[in-house]
Amino acid sequence: MFGATFGIVAQGLELFRKSADIRNRNILNANNPDYAQEDPVVKSFAPVGIRLEDIIRSQNFYYMSLRNQKLSLVSALDTTIKGNSQVENLFQEFTQGLGGSEYVNRFFTVYQNLMKEPTNEGARSELLNSAQSLISYLKDRRRDMERSLASTDYDMRQYINKINTLSKKLAQINQEILTGYAQTYARGRDYKNLFDQRDSYLRELSELINIQVQEDDIGRVRVETSHGFVLVEDRYNWELKYDAGNRRVLWKSKDGSEVDISGLISGGRVRGLLDFQQDLLGYINRLEEFSKRLISEVKLPLNSQAGNSWFWLRNLSDPNAGLGFSGSITFNFPGGPLVLSYSSTDSLNDIINTINTDPALSSSFSASLIQNPDGTYTMRITANDPSYTIEDSNNLIHRSEPLFTGTGIGDMALNSNINNYIQNLDYEKVDEFMDFSRSWWESSKSIYNQIVDSVASRQRDLRTKYDIENALLNSLNTRLQEMQGVSVDNEFIELMKIQRSYEALARTINAMDEMLRATLNMV
């Protein structure tokens, strides 16, 4: 009789000890966002006895998945915002109200000052200085953004490595869950503390890349990215790879093939970094467009001492399209003057072909089509003798040369003959070039302002979305904590009950011990 009773009491003491451990674990993890409260389930069994039947984990997997999805979106927005903030710091318009706009305005102001006083040595020197300062500014900004772009490659590799590490850990913990389930199946299935680490890994992974998660009956997870690219299944994991040369994220299958999933990633810091890379490339392209426009448009009026080339100063997007207006070009040379008339249906190439095929003209002049760095086209006419002149009824053809040379920011520079050109301006044409400079100024300023406006509007949009989505994330976190979080007060109450029960049962042991001693003394 005493043996059976002692067995039951021992079971009870062990059960209370186990229950106390669970309650203590709850209290210790009260501030752990990945911890779900555990409650022991105690059942009696026939004919006599009690046992720990199961441990219920108060987790809402559905809400946890919703939280992780929202976390992915918020992390993506946060990463893109931080990246674009770097660009804001590069363009001082956002911080000090100064920057590229000041360089642009100063350059064209100085250009117009020189057209007003073409003999002013100070104005000539100031034009050279302001032009060089503008070039330096553009090169510096391009270099800064390229450095920022290079840093995203480093960050992306770090993110991908962490994703691969977490995927491997989740596969390992899947195996541990299976082992723990098998070992504790008959002893209350007390293996679910592994789920806390599993949930922590899932949350970290969601912050890096959006995932879809399925949980089986014992708690193992299958993890995949958008469109079903598996990262974790059972005890196996798949890896991602970053192709820095093409800025692509690749999924590596077990057969060694690689699939570009960059466009299929919809959340996480990886998505945010991919978006920022696209933003940054867009800003760089627009800055390049700005520099190419300067190279393509800005020219200086020259006299016969500086050269014998004339440019058509209205750049066209299609050299084969009709001009849309009519006019005439007068060529003054010993065999002339000769007048070439063109109609609105004639194209720039038509005019060039006429000049080069007309026997009277081609002996003294040659024309060529010039493709500008910005993709537009113009006509260049070269005379055999600097004393020859050309006049256009629409005032579009002038003896001139570009102020800037190059194909973009990388090789942009002042014309190598700029000092000669500055000293040999055509004073009779400065008023016309004053008018041209106004349109060049507006055109260039418009492109530069698009860059600044694009950065500002992008940041406003991102921050608005972030505020909304982050508020929803906080709401989900609060709701999730209410569902599976630990109430310390309740846990202390339950712990006190267990302690009292344990003490009462321990006193039973003392009473039984006294009864046993008394019985033995009676023998």
Notes on the structure:
The protein is α+β, with helices and mostly antiparallel strands. The protein has three domains: 2-63 and 488-522, no CATH class; 70-95 and 152-283 and 454-476, no CATH class; 299-402, no CATH class. It has eleven helices and 19 strands. Strand 1 and strand 2 form a beta hairpin. The longest helix has 64 residues, at 121-184. It is rod-shaped, with a radius of gyration of 40 Å. The protein starts with a helix and ends with a helix.
Summarize the entry for a quick read.
The chain has about 525 residues and is of the alpha+beta class. About 55% of the residues lie in helices and about 15% in strands.
Domain module tally = 3
Task: State the oligomer.
Answer: single chain
Distance between the termini: 17 Å
Side-by-side strand order of the widest sheet: 10-17-11-15-14
What best-fitting shape do the alpha-carbon axes yield?
rod-shaped
Largest sheet: 5 strands, antiparallel
Strand content: 15-25%
Low-confidence stretches: none
Structural class: alpha+beta
Number of strands: 19
Tell me the radius of gyration: 40 Å
SSE string, helices as H and strands as E: HEEHHHHEEEEEEEHEEEEHHEEEEEEHHH
How many helices in DSSP terms?
Answer: 11
Observed structural traits:
523 residues; alpha+beta; 11 helices
Strand-helix topology:
Elements lengths: L1 H27 L9 E7 L5 E8 L3 H30 L9 H17 L4 H64 L8 H16 L3 E4 L5 E4 L5 E4 L2 E2 L1 E5 L4 E5 L5 E3 L7 H30 L1 E3 L7 E4 L14 E6 L5 E5 L5 H10 L1 H4 L2 E7 L5 E7 L5 E4 L4 E6 L1 E2 L7 E2 L3 H6 L6 H55 L3 H35 L1
Antiparallel strand pairs: 1-2, 3-4, 4-5, 5-6, 7-8, 8-9, 10-17, 11-15, 11-17, 12-13, 12-16, 14-15, 18-19
Helix pairs in contact: 1-11, 2-4, 2-5, 2-6, 2-10, 3-4, 3-10, 4-5, 4-6, 5-6, 6-10
